[in-house]
Batch of 3 targets.
Target 1
Amino acid sequence: MFSPPQIPIINDGLLYANGLVLSYVSAKVITMSAGAARDASNTNDISLSALVTIDGSKTGANGFDSGVLGATQCYAVYVVGDSTSYKPTAGLISANLTTMPVLPAGYDMYRRVGWVVTNDTAQILKFYQYGKDEKRTYYYDVDDSFGVVVLSGGAEIEYTQVQMGAPSNAPVVPPIATRVIFRNEYDPALAANTASFQTYGATATAASVTVGLGVALLQLQNFFIDCELDETGVPSIQYKVTASDATSLIVQGYDDYLY
């Protein structure tokens, strides 16, 4: 009986990420824990055997890829490797958010594993990153509000856009569609009044989140809303309040996806 030749099954690589957790150290310095990830081309594995320190004031491997950290900017953080294993695996901060970073000499593999954001003095905002696989959650530890204000005293009575980052507004959320963690400070003029929040671009009259505790006093709430990218690529939501009210929004954190 004829037997056809056996053909091995070859599985495509899985764009996994494990470990490589980022931690804030100081205004210019973060660390990346040991771990491994598939490279961005889904061809090779990049393995980091021990924690590395990434200094944004330096250029090259375990530093900034090209130039210096600027004020009110969002930067991508990459793990980079050498497919010949001659160069040690390293971390890299880069202004190239969605394309290949400027790789140091001898490196030919990369994968984005996180983000950092700077304030108006070019210092990295203190953050905490949680999660060890393809989903990571960030929390800011900034000032008394434990977050970054993106709307102060908003009083619009029709749905109005709020951007999470733009040239005139520090990009506290990277340029991805994602779930954002908000703290809301709502000051209603009347007990029955409410504030409403939606994903950017939503056309339904109903809100994704409605706040109002039935008292005419300053109210504090925490909630999540999915942010969509606007026409310029900036993650945004929209809000409205009842006439004579005011509300403020503080970004406390967001989810990141290493897919």
Note: The chain has no helices and 20 strands.
Target 2
Amino acid sequence: MPNPKKVETVKRLQEILKDVPYIFFADYKGMRVNELQTLKRQLREKGATFTVVKNTLTHIALSNLGMQDTKRFLKGPTAIIIAKDDPGSVLKAVLNFDKERNLPAVKGGIVEGRIVEENQIEALSKLPSREVLLAQLLGTLQAPTRGLVTVLSGTIRGLVVALNQIKEAKEKAS
């Protein structure tokens, strides 16, 4: 018979994780309390949380949500980093923290329902923020229109200049 407290923890964890697009797993072994608090504060500023839950309870919650392939990330002391948006800035913060202290090591994660391996984490951290990506997309979408307007206005400008020169030539001839 499962412990009611653990059943409640699994239910709460499922509620938290069910609609979260970005979940990362990190090994926090060797982190001191003050380092843990610093990292949590940095992640909170990015809209993310750093939570420690027993691996078995995390696995049960994720399995109930249809994410069975995460068991390999849940070995040893594992924290869950939950981000609702902009995974790049969250991972950047964790990796910068890792470079300074060699802690925590990100094991992998789930990005919009897909498993992300440890070797893909750094590539994700280098992605620009959502706002920058949207601005780049908008610039790319506007470029053909801007080019067309420039070409058309150049043609009209050329016609006006030619007509003006004809007018000036006629005025000189008179």
Note: The two ends are 109 Å apart (CA to CA).
Target 3
Amino acid sequence: MPNLFKDKIGGEKYLSIWWFAVIVVVGVGITVGVLFFYSTNVDVRDTESMYLYYKITNCLIQNGFLVSESLDSNFDIFEKCDLDRYAFSGENFYFYINFYDESNLKLREALESDAKDIQKQCDIILHTKDEKLDAKYYPHCVEKIADFLYIKNGVIKKGSLKILTASNNFGIKLPMT
């Protein structure tokens, strides 16, 4: 059998050019991928406001019944629902909760966090029909009604919670370091 590769020279010269081309393509691909990853904005306002709504609802309503101590005037929602009081002291998160009975009368005063400006912005977003409203930097708000049962004087009655939750937490760009 004759040697097929005998007297074949110059193969390494041509292979090294392709080798460098492959290295350059892989390097550019990795660099572009890293730059895309680190240049994205993280906007979790919708997710956070929905999560806050579900967390408050699941805390105040258990097995379809309103937690009885939530109607007390000294009820601390931050302690009972395991909410960080410090997170609600700034302008990132907000909640407003109204307790109503079946005839739409308030069962107690509303519970709310400190950021009153966010409530005004949510009112503008949720109750304005203007399509030209550019609310790109406004908080994302969730306003829902959750029905519950409660016991008053030994009688089971129906009620509802009107809950407004909002998040203005834009997130940050990831640092390159």
Note: The two ends are 60 Å apart (CA to CA).
